[in-house]
Amino acid sequence: MLIEVRTDGNIKGSEQFSDHVKALVHTALDRFDDRIRRVDVYLSDAIADKPGHDDKCCVIEARRDGREPIVVTHQESTMDQAIQGAVHSLKKSVDSAFGKESTRDHLRDHH
Questions:
Q1: pTM (2 decimals)?
Q2: Is the dihedral of CA 3, 97, 80, 57 positive or negative?
Q3: What is the pLDDT of residues 71-83, one digit of tens each?
């Protein structure tokens, strides 16, 4: 599973920060490693110097072979919270998507 982290111009994304984000995503999706080809994480800060707004945004797109990508967005007042929220949402969305697909596949295989 390839994980890419991209930031807008308002975020000073160090390599360590990028590695931290990749580790969070990898941990969350580890059991789906063979079914997710690529994950793109987009980090943005709409209001760069104004604290106290839910302006930090994390969008995560998980790409799978032959199916629609799973996309989640989370906004918070800190980038860490935005990332944690998006990773949590992604994990739930992926669990749900693969759960439904395996149930459907399972039912189809037994009829």
A1: 0.85
A2: positive
A3: 999 999 899 999 9
